[in-house]
Amino acid sequence: MDHRAEPAGHRRAADLSTVDELLGSIDDAADPAVAEALTRYFQVKPGGYGFGDQIIGLKLSTIRALLKPYLRADLPLSALEKALASPVHEHRLAILCLLADRASRASKPRTANPSELAAIYDLYLRNTEYVNNWDLVDCSAAEIVGGYLLDKPRTVLRELVVSPSLWERRIALVSTHRLIRAGESADIYALSALVLSDPEDLIHKASGWMLREAGKRVSEAELLAFLDNHAPAMPRTMLRYAIERLPAETRKYYLAKR
């Protein structure tokens, strides 16, 4: 792996830390009251999309604060991959945030590290079974998958978006956020056309969210053209998310097309 050298004395003490210490700090910060609220929020109940997950009670802001000493520690990817199989939701969330941060740095010109980015991408796609709630997808897919695909063919997105897995379909959609931020919107329009009849509200939300971002960041005219063709067939949630930033009269026009 092509690690970039840092000036002497600059590396943090956490360079010598372990993934176990990171997870231990998360366990120590667990809050039963927060856990009770999050259990409802992430539908951990029987029949919910998060059923079976173990919530110990940390908000994302708390996890990000705990991660700060570890962001440049270059913890071994093999250890991070092992930790990603933890039954604890917040453990997986922390690992994915950490991997996303490393992928983001590895994809930027000034800190480019193609071998690290490829290794994180491969790790991610062989462990999608553990990226199994919307917050886990949303904190990681854009930087890890989208960042890797910036200069590559996007065939994998078409494969993921027709997967039987709700979470792989959401990964495909949310991954386009990184592409959209780079000025590329073709992928989200192609993917969104493929999920018009998807049964899951979480897919409708992800598609509409990315369509809205494409209209805001790349071209409103392209978004309007997509809506002209597809608004009558779009699930109401997808359409509402997609048109959220458009003028009120335009929103009314497209809602009426349904």
What descriptors fit this protein?
0% strand, disordered N terminus, Serine Threonine Protein Phosphatase 5, Tetratricopeptide repeat, mainly alpha, 258 residues, 15 helices
Q: For this structure, what is the CATH class of the largest domain?
A: Mainly Alpha
Q: How many E-type strands?
A: 0
Ranges with pLDDT <50 over ≥5 residues?
A: 1-16
Helix content: 55-70%
Protein model, in words:
The chain has 258 residues and is an all-alpha fold. The chain folds into 2 domains: 11-113, no CATH class; 153-258, Alpha Horseshoe (Serine Threonine Protein Phosphatase 5, Tetratricopeptide repeat), CATH 1.25.40.290. It has helices at residues 19-28, 32-41, 60-67, 77-83, 89-107, 114-125, 134-138, 141-149, 155-161, 166-181, 186-194, 201-217, 220-230, 236-242, 248-257. The longest helix is centred in the middle third of the chain and has 19 residues, at 89-107. It starts with 18 loop residues before the first helix and ends with a helix. 38% of the residues are buried.
Architecture blueprint of SSEs:
Layout: H1 19-28, H2 32-41, H3 60-67, H4 77-83, H5 89-107, H6 114-125, H7 134-138, H8 141-149, H9 155-161, H10 166-181, H11 186-194, H12 201-217, H13 220-230, H14 236-242, H15 248-257
Write a concise synopsis of the structure shown:
The chain is an all-alpha fold and 258 residues long.
